[in-house]
């Protein structure tokens, strides 16, 4: 544990540190230290991990499970996910002993009202992400004052500059893998013998919803297969308000 993280771990929880203070203290900390600090800051009742159970998700979930496998995990089941992703979720729950995975679906009334023909992903993908991801996440996060996610700076784009700790919609948001490299993620998979997402072997380097995910070719950015041919690069859970 680095010196700042050690100092943070030993301080009283009676006065909560700000996001900036946490970010400074945890800037060079390892993912497990950052998750432990999140737990210490707000307590398990107030902390959730958000995971897509995508191609690199097992690394974050493994580190989290080593810290505390009972931290609630929110999984957004949009209704457009691959069967393989749902199966992978169940495989990882069993393998890692995750005790509280919450599969959150969009509201039926929102689907009937805004996407009766199930074509919104094509005509207005931002609106589709809003009713299938952003609004369900906002509902799921209501009981929590902090959340953890798996974004990495090496993914580039708007992720290239993410801090380790920030504020999003009034909640603390921890990015414990912000500093982690691709090689370190591979190492976590190898050491823990974590299974790969079933679609990875057939060329899907980043997996989201079926209509908005395609294979990538050699040399392409790993997220190039998401919303291919469109300007959209993010679903909105990190860029739209979740409060
Ligand atoms: Fe809809 Fe595509 Fe967003 Fe999934 S990723 S919610 S299908 S627009």
TrEMBL record:
SUPFAM superfamilies: Adenine nucleotide alpha hydrolases-like (SSF52402)
Domain Phosphoadenosine phosphosulphate reductase, chain residue ranges per copy: 47-214
Catalytic activity, as annotated: [thioredoxin]-disulfide + sulfite + AMP + 2 H(+) = adenosine 5'-phosphosulfate + [thioredoxin]-dithiol
Intracellular or extracellular location(s): Cytoplasm
GO molecular function: 4 iron, 4 sulfur cluster binding; adenylyl-sulfate reductase (thioredoxin) activity; metal ion binding; phosphoadenylyl-sulfate reductase (thioredoxin) activity
EC number assigned by the record: 1.8.4.10
GO biological process, alphabetically ordered: hydrogen sulfide biosynthetic process; sulfate assimilation, phosphoadenylyl sulfate reduction by phosphoadenylyl-sulfate reductase (thioredoxin)
Cellular component per GO, a single term: cytoplasm
UniProt record similarity statement: Belongs to the PAPS reductase family. CysH subfamily.
Protein name: Adenosine 5'-phosphosulfate reductase
